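Hi R.,

Here's the chain you asked about this morning:
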Amino acid sequence: MQMDNIVEIKERINQLSIEISNIYREVLELKQSINFVETDLFNPKDIDNLINDVNELFNGFMFSRKPLNVNIRGILIYLILSNCDINLKDLAVPFYKKDHTTIIHNRDKIKNFINIGDKLTINNLSIIEPIFNKYLNK
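And the predicted structure, written out as tokens:
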């Protein structure tokens, strides 16, 4: 009888261990999805200057709907949101967007492209990031 109880307890401990692991993994995923910015590394007042610098390299990217230019705008939005606690509606203004949902869509799209190793995004990011880094508060 006592052996049966020990076996049942061991099985239950194993089940609980698996459940705890799953909960821990869910918590980690949730923390990553929040994308919380602890400090402002980027000053929102520099957005116009950043856009102008990138525009010198990719002339006319702000108004074109070509995939390359849409990607460039998305990368800028992604970098700014990753390094600055800025209101999404405020960020929409310099990018000539009507509301914050487009900003969210751009950020998430670029994050996904980076995760899957999209060549265009990785290439553009390697060009834009050094320009962006000039504006980081260190």
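The two ends are 67 Å apart (CA to CA).

Let me know if you need anything else.
M.
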